[in-house]
Backbone:
């Protein structure tokens, strides 16, 4: 329907028919399903799980509760429902609650319709204006959500407190004929949740002592973390009973899905894309960090590990490489594993630790997660070093076939290698090529690798061997990593302790 229509009479003449918002959403969703199009733009990984559940709920004209851990796109799913509304909606001009001219519910709308009839002025709402959202906090009141008596309005208009026109409508009545979302529902005090009972079941509101019935037309969507997430509160049982569909959200099921989300959501400055190239190894490593955190014994799994972890980690990785390029006056650079030192702050602020993790310390847990992610990523690119372990029966044959042996032997002869995050490209490559057997080992697995690709794989190989305890690795005061022979490292530690004892 075209929004140029300005009177109720013209609206009727045009054949407009008003529909309840849930019927409107249902009709538009049916069109999407028939055309096999997805109204939930930018949602990745929910194609076969959450989205079908949402479609079934909307076809049933249900109010919805999204239940899941933080960073699982619950609010984004709710906001995506705006795409299922008609583009334009007519309402009685001047109405605070978007009164339907065919079904007016406020005093203002009924009076102006009775006075002007077909000449009643009509205004139009775009679908983007029919979405309201409220974050539930302990200080939210019934007046905020539903409404209250406005004494200033009563005084200015010289109205009695018994007159319905003195009411100030809250955000829910103002969402009439639209979508209303309450985020973090358990944070809403129990007595405030009780005030929602009638709205959900009967569609009407009660304000103070007024005997009024306002059959509100709203699609309600709620989001919540699981009730046992903290001791902050829960959803009262009668309210949960009135929410027809409860949909469980989840984290990405694979590294590929997680990587697609990260690349879509990461906000990089335009010039960063021209300066920094992020190799696939680093992209996978970023996602593996979140995967490891979601199963770590040091991380509170009830709290969850948000998808924002990988997004901010990716942004920090790119910025670490950009900072090095700026310091070294290089026009272009590749992200390195050493740049993951700059990712640590994105980890420490995104995971909630259990008691054992707090004892370990956030930074130590972050480095441990990085090590576990490197180990898992290493096995995606190279053969498991465990398969080359010597045995009494065939130790000589395995030693000859072990592609990692030249590298570990080089460190075994007393050599050390320190890879600093801020070194220039030429120094970085020289340091990697100085390790005997490192380049040839990478070429054995990836004979067609170009220089830049080979370099990041050589660095991954060093980190991977350290995670399998074939060489030693230590962080260097937040500036890089030092590699040496595992036995020499242990002897050096013992020697230091003996000196202290003396």
Residues:
């Amino acid at each position: 329907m075209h929004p140029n229509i300005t009177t109720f009479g013209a609206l009727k003449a045009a054949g407009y028919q008003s529909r309840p918002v849930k019927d409107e959403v249902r009709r538009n969703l049916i069109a999407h399903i028939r055309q096999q199009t997805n109204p939930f733009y930018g949602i990745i990984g929910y194609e076969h799980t959450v989205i079908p559940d949402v479609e079934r709920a909307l076809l049933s004209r249900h109010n919805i509760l999204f239940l899941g851990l933080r960073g699982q796109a619950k609010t984004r799913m709710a906001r995506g429902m705006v795409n299922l509304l008609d583009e334009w909606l007519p309402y009685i001009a001047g109405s605070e609650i978007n009164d339907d001219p065919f079904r007016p519910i406020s005093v203002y709308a009924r009076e102006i319709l009775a006075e002007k009839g077909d000449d009643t002025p009509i205004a139009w709402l775009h679908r983007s204006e029919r979405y309201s959202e409220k974050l539930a906090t302990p200080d939210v009141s019934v007046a905020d959500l539903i409404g209250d008596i406005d004494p200033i309005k009563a005084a200015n208009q010289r109205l009695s407190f018994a007159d319905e026109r003195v009411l100030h409508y809250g955000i829910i009545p103002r969402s009439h004929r639209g979508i209303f979302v309450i985020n973090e529902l358990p944070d809403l005090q129990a007595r405030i949740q009780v005030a929602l009972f009638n709205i959900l079941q009967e569609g009407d509101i009660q304000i103070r002592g007024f005997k009024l019935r306002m059959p509100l037309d709203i699609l309600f969507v709620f989001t919540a973390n699981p009730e046992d997430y903290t001791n902050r509160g829960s959803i009262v049982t009668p309210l949960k009973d009135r929410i027809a569909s409860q949909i469980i959200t989840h984290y990405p099921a694979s590294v590929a899905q997680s990587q697609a989300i990260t690349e879509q959501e990461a906000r990089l400055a335009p010039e960063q894309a021209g300066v920094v190239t992020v190799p696939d190894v680093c992209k996978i490593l970023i996602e593996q960090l979140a995967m490891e955190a979601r199963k770590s014994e040091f991380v509170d799994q009830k709290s969850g590990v948000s998808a924002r972890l990988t997004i901010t980690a990716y942004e920090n990785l790119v910025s670490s490489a950009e900072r090095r390029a700026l310091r070294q006056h290089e026009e272009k650079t590749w992200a390195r594993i050493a740049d993951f030192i700059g990712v640590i702050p994105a980890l420490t602020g995104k995971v909630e630790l259990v008691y054992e993790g707090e004892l370990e310390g956030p930074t130590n847990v972050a480095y441990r997660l990085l090590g576990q992610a490197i180990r898992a990523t290493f096995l995606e690119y190279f053969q498991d070093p465990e398969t080359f372990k010597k045995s009494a029966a065939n130790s000589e044959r395995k030693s000859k076939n072990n592609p990692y042996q030249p590298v570990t032997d080089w460190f075994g002869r007393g050599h050390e290698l320190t890879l600093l995050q801020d070194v220039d490209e030429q120094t970085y490559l020289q340091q990697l090529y100085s390790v005997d057997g490192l380049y040839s080992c990478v070429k054995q697995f990836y004979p067609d690798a170009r220089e830049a690709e080979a370099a990041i794989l050589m660095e991954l190989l060093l980190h991977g061997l350290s995670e399998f305890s074939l060489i030693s690795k230590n962080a260097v005061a937040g500036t890089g990593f030092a590699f040496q022979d595992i036995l020499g490292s242990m002897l050096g530690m013992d020697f230091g302790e003996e000196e202290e004892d003396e």
